[in-house]
Every structure is written in C-alpha cells, then in structure tokens.
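chain below, 402 aa
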Amino acid sequence: MKILYYDCFSGISGDMNLGALLDLGVDKKYLLKELDKLSIGSYKLKVYKDMRGGITGTKVDVIVPSQEKKSFKDRLSKQTCSNIAKTIKKSNLSANVKKVSLDIFSRLALAEGKVHDHKIEQVHFHEVGAVDSIVDIVGAAVCLDYLKVDKIISSPVQLGSGIIQCNHGTLPVPAPATAEILQCIPVKTGLVPFEATTPTGAAIIAATASAFTEKIDFTPRKIGYGLGSKESAVPNVLRVFWGELSASTVNAFDVETGEAVMIECNIDDMNPEFYDFIMDQLFAKGAHDVFLTPTIMKKSRPAVTISVLCDTGKQKDMENVLWLHSSSFGLRSYKVSKNMLKREIAKVKTAYGEIPVKKGYLNGRLIKHKPEYEDCRRLAKENNVPIQDIYKSIHLVKRTKK
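prediction:
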C-alpha cells in the first residue's frame, strides 16, 4: 500500500502543497499539461528551489499578468460555487481529478456560506475565485492523481497565531472559514506569528486525508518540501512523506481510530416520556450514539444516566440539547478513543427491493455484515410482509449467489 503523509507542523497552504508534491517527484510538465485543460485565462507557473529556515525545498508562484488578473478577478467577483464547478466539469480533466477538485471547492463554499449566513449557491468566492487559487486546488487534485497513492494521512494541522487582513476586515487566526473547515480535525496553534494554514490549504487536507495522527507507521521512501512565502524562526515548510506499508501493516488499517467526546448526566426527576424526544434531538444534531443506563443516586433514588457520544466539534450542540430539553443542572464530559472496523455499504437486490448492507472487515477479511434496519422496516411496510421476511430474503440472495 502506498501512503502519503502530510506533516503540517508549520501549516499548509495551496502553494505550499503544490511545492511539496512537485518536490516529491510530480512531473511539472504533466501538471502544466493538465492545468491547460481549464479555461481560466493566461498565467505562468513559476517553480524554483529556495530555502526556509535552513531547509531546501520547492517554491511555487502563480503569476498572472496584471491586466489579466484584474479582468479575471472582476469576472470571478460574481462567480459562485456552481459557476466554478461548471468550469471544472466542462474541462477534459479525468473523472477523479474533477471529483477531488469539486470536493475541495465544496468544502470552501460550505464553510464560507455558514460563516456569512449564505446559501451555498449564493457564496461569492473573492480570494478563492482568483486564478491562483483555482490552480492550487485543481493542481492538488492533478498531483495526487499522478502519485496514485492508496491512502493519505496527516498530522494535526498547525494554524499559527496573530491577526489577518481579508475582505471582511481584521480577523484573528485562524480565519473563520479555516476554523469551519477543520472542525473535528486535530489542530495546533501558536507555533508561528502568522496565518500558517489558509482556507484553501485547510480544504485540501480535509478533503483528501482519511486519518490524522502524529505517528508514522510506515516505511518512508521519499520526502518533499513545499515552501511558504514568509520567513520565521520555525521553517515555514510543508513536509510530505511518500512511503509504503507492508502487507501485515496494511491489515492494521482495517481498524480506524479516532477521538470523540462522551457527555453524561444523571436524571432522577424527569417524566420518562421525554427521553425519546431528547434522543431524537441529539441524533438530529449529529450524535454518534445515545444510550440510557439505569442507576441509583443518593438517597437510593432510581435514576437514568444519559450518555452521548459525539465528535469534539459537536460537543456544544449536544450540551445545548441537554440543557434545553432535560431537567439536569449539570453535565460531565471526557474524551474517548474510538476503534472502528473498516466498513463499506453494499446494496443487495431482493424480491422486495434493494437493501443496503453494512460490511465489516478485519485483516482484509469480511467478518460481519448487517442490513440497515430502517430500510428493512420500510420495505416490510411497502410490501405488507413481516420484517423477518425481508431479512430472510437477503440471506436467500447470498445463498443463491454461492
């Protein structure tokens, strides 16, 4: 298995990412040939070796003629996510490059829309719409497609510190869009006195990395360094490792690890009919799991413990539901680690309709599968049959295939 590991110890931006991937071995001519498939006006990609903090790497500058830049930015000041998406979709880029590019742009649009309270189709792209940002984003997709890696992993992302000037005024680091994009992703702050991670860099890493860890559990074969523009005491570089996993190590990736938050409260004075409503509200806000545990509180009073498992970025939403809809005056929370089997959803065609089946793998082997209950219940109602008949139909299909 081929692995790409982003060491974002000094942050990530669009140009740093391009520099690191070119430094890693992506063919510059190939990149330019692919970018020429986009109709975005004239520009020049300047790629050269330079040094930051004693480390030699590759610097990438997108140079747009002043008149062309003004004309293009004027046109793109009215561009929305859908307009940019059309430009990418109409190009002759490969399907995979289009998919990754659109995923990155969508994350930017969703973040900007939430921050400024706009619908995604109403988001105007300002800096993101500039030709250099389009080159950064589509270029990232082209380079990753060129490298043909099986898995992309990242370290926690350094955000930097200080203030930045943007179209919306003076703001603290991280920029609101960057903070929004990196929700539920491990981050660090304060290493350098400037914006270490830009919205474009955040969107690239959020859209492409499937895991975030400081551990490097593979064999590095090559390292690339992409240089930022600013100088600092800490080298302003993005380091990217290309490496390989042995067959035995690959199986370890069947179990995905992550970090979550458990929020709990004990209740002994609430109408039991309210629990169902509270659970629905928690799941609607993004809880991974909600469960009730009978317990005995002080003075031997029977009570119920409500436990909520969620991503760290959802903690406040869960707490608000419990404050508003339960009788509790206090909550406790603690971080937990999650281990999850690698899974995939397969659709099985039965006599009653198509049913999604969740499959779990360990050491590269399918060890369990489970049909989605809600779909089974829906088909039972639609076909006016017992739900066990729906489950039996799935097993019948599997036996027939054998």
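The mean pLDDT is 87. Residues 95-116 form the longest helix (22 residues).
thats it, cya
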